[in-house]
Amino acid sequence: MATAEHSMSLQELLPPVQRRRTRIGLVSGGLGTYWPQFPGLLPQLKESAAYLAERLGQLDAEVTDVGFISDAQEGARAAEELRRADCDLIVLFLTTYLTSSMVLPIARRSHTPVLVVDLQPSERMDHATFDTGAWLAYCAQCSVPEVGNVFRRAGIPFRSVSGWLRQESAWRRIEQWIRAARVRAALRHARHGLMGHLYPGMLDVSTDLTLLPATFGSHVEVLEFDDLRHRVEQVSEAETRDRMALARRVFTLDDSVADEDFAWGARVSVALDRLVEDFGLDTLAYYHRGIDGELHERLGAGMILGASLLTARGVPAAGEYELRTSVAQLVSQSVGAGGSFTEIQALDFEDGVVEMGHDGPAHLAVSARDPLLRGLGVYHGKRGWGVSVEFDVRHGPVTLLGLGQDADGSLSFVTSEGTVVPGPLLEIGNTTSRVDFGRDPGEWVDAWSATGVGHHWSLAVGSHGADFRAAASLLGIDHREV
């Protein structure tokens, strides 16, 4: 940060909003017929199950371990416990061979995605010393295709991770499914605020409000700009000054920022926090056209500062009434990747990059430098004036995530991975980046546009295409990659 006031971290200045923890169900099992035959086998398998439970508990999730099952009756009881636990993902640990009848009820009755995990005790057997009992601790793989076949015949999506107990590459695959479960948890319980009205003519932005609860379980709260106006009227001068002081610690203020516009943006920011708290919102999409500088126009124009601060705290905000993009931002946020409101700005055929960005709220976590507040006398394509957030996205890998929609109304995750590279950027109060997708920029635009994505999306830092693909699987929607 540029001054001594900027010494605190962004996390200290803007503590994240707390959400429900991801719930992981765990059930381990093997065929009970073996236990009297090989007395040392079950204790060994339970030791492996305890290790797996311990590792899962380290992944920032609430783990419900329903224990070890040995037959179909115990499997049915475990299914009921997991159904009541309302998990976001169930991990089914195959410790040795078991029959598919033991685990099918778990997937059917819980109505929760299942990840089948098969982790043998070590990299390989000691063939010279192993007897049948020792071998059985290594033969869980025998059940994996059986379970896969039965799940497929029952219309249940099948996912598995096979490996050995302390194999870190296998654990990275498991962790990817846990990150995907965080996305499912976030969307299942999300309350999406939608305030104002559609930007006139943007047909791609329009979204059937039944679609999100039907697809994800989310709730859409329809808000009026008067809900914000009422709260703005309640903000005191002292609260406004405190928010201006906070903004000075988070942002560098450009000389173009007018004091009156800065104070207005700070006042609206305080009111936005109250709006989010009062309605229990997890995201906010908004737009209001306004006319001749009247109050509602000024409210719409004064959103950028507060919406950016909310986004930095984990409550993504998107302008232009972009509900699907605010959802995509929440998904990006759920995997720890930021997620900034983005569209195509231009193509640079000399450097082979796609220039991206957007005016309005931005995710400060993706910034390569101190975010700047710039004063704008006009917002292009919109009414009003005031302060806008400007920064360039940090260089390195990024992943785009958009929500596409098809003719039948179904949603899809649309992703593309690229690299933000250095080069000239506009200084017009926008979030900006130059993304190299490793191909001709025009060809990339054609392929991206053919997926059904809208003209806005979330830009997340890091390589997260595989995370979003896994999340789409848990959510039961298509994933399209460019």
Q: Can you characterise this structure?
A:
By secondary structure, this protein is α/β, with parallel strands linked by helices. The chain contains 17 helices and 19 strands. β6, α9 and β7 form a beta-alpha-beta unit. The longest helix has 21 residues.
Q: What is the subunit arrangement here? A: single chain
Helix content: 25-40%
**Ends: how far apart?**
36 Å
State the secondary-structure class: alpha/beta
Using only C-alpha atoms, the radius of gyration works out to 25 Å
In short:
The chain has 482 residues and is α/β, with parallel strands linked by helices.
Which key phrases capture this entry?
482 residues; six-stranded antiparallel barrel; 17 helices; elongated; AraA_N_sf
Structural topology:
Layout: H1 10-13, E1 23-29, H2 34-37, H3 41-57, E2 62-69, H4 72-85, E3 89-94, H5 104-110, E4 114-120, H6 132-136, H7 143-153, E5 160-164, H8 168-188, E6 191-196, H9 211-215, E7 219-223, H10 225-233, H11 237-250, E8 252-253, H12 259-279, E9 283-287, H13 295-301, H14 304-312, E10 317-318, H15 323-334, E11 338-348, E12 353-358, E13 372-376, E14 386-392, E15 396-405, E16 411-420, E17 431-436, H16 441-449, E18 457-461, H17 465-475, E19 478-481
Parallel strand pairs: 1-2, 1-3, 3-4, 4-5, 6-7, 6-9, 8-13, 9-10, 14-17, 16-19
Antiparallel strand pairs: 11-12, 11-18, 12-17, 13-14, 15-16, 15-18, 16-17
Helix pairs in contact: 4-5, 8-15, 8-17, 10-12, 10-13, 11-12, 12-14
